[in-house]
Write a structure and sequence with these properties.
Helices cover about 40% and strands about 15% of the residues. By secondary structure, it is of the alpha/beta class. The chain folds into two domains: about 100 residues, K Homology domain, type 1 (Ribosomal Protein S8, Chain: A, domain 1); about 220 residues, Rossmann fold (3-Layer(aba) Sandwich), CATH 3.40.50. The radius of gyration is 23 Å and the shape is globular. The N terminus is likely disordered.
Amino acid sequence: MSAAELKNPPQNQTSGASDMAHIVLTFDNNKLASALYGQFDENLARLEQKLGVDIRSRGNQLAIKGTASAAEQARRALDTLYGILQKGADIGQSDVDGAVRMAIAADDQLTLPTMERKGKVSAAQIATRKRTIYARSLNQDAYMRALERSEMVFGIGPAGTGKTYLAVAHAAMLLERGMVERIVLSRPAVEAGERLGFLPGDMKEKVDPYLRPLYDALYDMMPADKVERAIAAEVIEIAPLAFMRGRTLAHAAVILDEAQNTTPMQMKMFLTRLGENSRMIVTGDPTQIDLPPNTKSGLVEALRILDGVPGIVTVRFNEGDVVRHPLVAEIVKAYDRDGKLARGLGAES
């Protein structure tokens, strides 16, 4: 049974409001319907704000009124959120925002071949033992599908778009399913605009501060004790980029994070480590390069050189894909505007 039953399909009302529609949804589980609405109907209020519709609840029924397109988008978003609840997961504000983004983009979504009607295709998902992650934007959807079918994927874009988090989630899923034998995490040891000086401890302790975002994502996907055991057994390996020369990484999910801070030589060395039955994921943001002045970014060079190479997929995120606090998207937009203005002034001078 579908998550929501369409009682009255979108239909034209009076001639004075020919583009308006009225949709009634009935949910088969009152407890899940209550979770869908949110405390004090906060999720419904957020949908109203995002899509410009009017949503009224009465028990397990919802009445959606608005333009035909907006009402249909609200229906899609509610159907998606109810499906998540049916699978035992909780939903929050970010899930509502993600469902709205996917609902708006559904008509233009490019998907793998499917028998489903356009606009009804489910968002891509990554399922690990601890949790299931659903795509919250069209580019996240494309990224997750690329990770599923490609051996080398570049995820490029600003902070907060989920490119690293989804890469780690996919690697954890591959490990749990036995599709790879280990996960290799790497990141260039470049400080973001400051010098931390000498770091005490062994190699793992020295590089841990740089890899903390990867660890955080791992702990979200796998039980903490399992992560610790896997690290101790080197099933999850911390591999400083500088020490990877000469290795061949076979039967592994390999992630290079913050790749914009590699040199061209480091990037070439890393990419040529790809071995048999391995997946390689490279993430980075070319607008946040922390290399010394006049040093080329290996990520920027690789994107130029490898453009069009069969088997390599590049997914580019933008501020519309930011899934952190809404202010993060606005901050990214502001910095982008300032950068474009600065480049324009530089071109004129």
